[in-house]
Amino acid sequence: MTINRRTLMQGAAGIAAGAALGSPFGAGRAFAAGSMPQFKPEEGASLRLLRWVPFVSGEEAAFNANTKAFTEATGVEVRIDQESWEDVRPKAAVAANVGSGPDMVMSWFDDPFQYPDKLVDVTDLGNALGEANGGWYDGLKGYATQGDKFIAIPLCAIGNAICYRDSHMKAAGFSEFPKDTDGFLELCKAMKDKGTPAGFPHGKAVGDGNNYAHWLLWSHGGMTVDENGKPAINSPETKAAVEYAKKLYATFIPGTESWLDINNNRAFLAGQISLTANGVSLYYAAKKDPAMAEIAEDIRTTNLPIGPVGKSVELHQTSTINIFKHTKYPEAAKAWIAFMFQPEKFNAWLEGASAYCCQPLKAFADNPVWSSNPVHKAYANASASLRPNGYAGPLGPASAGVMADYVLVDMFAEAVTGQRSTEDAIANAERRIKRYYR
Question: PROSITE patterns, from UniProt (predicted)?
Answer without folding.
Answer: TAT
